[in-house]
Amino acid sequence: MFRARFFTACAMAVSFPVLVMAQSVDFGGLRADKTAPVEVTADSLNVNQESGQAVFSGNVEVTQGDMHMKAAELEVFYASDKRTEITKLHATGGVTLVSPTEAAEADEAVYDVKAGTVVMTGKVLLTQGDNVMSGNKLNVDLSTGAGTMDGRVRTLLKPAGSK
Predict the structure, then answer these.
(1) Number of folded domains in the chain?
(2) Residue 78 burial class via C-beta count within 10 angstroms: exposed 0-12, middle 13-18, buried 19 and up
(3) pLDDT (tens digit per residue) in 28-61
(4) Domain annotation covers residue 125
(5) Which SS3 state, helix, strand or coil, does residue 108 take?
(6) φ, ψ dihedrals at 28, nearest 5°
(7) Would you say residue 133 lies in a domain?
(8) Is residue 32 situated within a structural domain?
(9) How close are the terminal C-alpha atoms of the chain, in Å?
(10) Per-residue confidence (pLDDT) for residue 142, from 0 to 100
């Protein structure tokens, strides 16, 4: 009996890393075409010509290609030499970022348009189909789909075929 338990324990120990690797999570759905135009709609807009900033408030929606972001407020930063070129977006107040295959929620998000990166912070929740991840900070490269989640990460992975 001891031998059977020992064999079972060894088999589980050897197969566990394989199961974990098979359930890896990819951020590939959070990709964007950074050459696509950025469209912003909101209830109001306040522009400061001197600082090169614009603040959209109330029911803010941002679209770039297949990526959609919603927030309560959005600060838009323009290049100092080109007042029509957006360099950064800073969204606050219940931010959601949605792609065709994934959705992320957080307290705030910073989108660096030139670098093609998004950093979401504060109670981050990422949903990929049935898989869910939560943490304090999500960094995603929208060109490659590579990303990291930091700050007491919790993951719920559903194996293929599970209900």
Answers:
(1) 1
(2) middle
(3) 555 556 678 878 899 999 998 777 789 999 999 9
(4) yes
(5) strand
(6) -55, -25
(7) yes
(8) yes
(9) 34
(10) 79
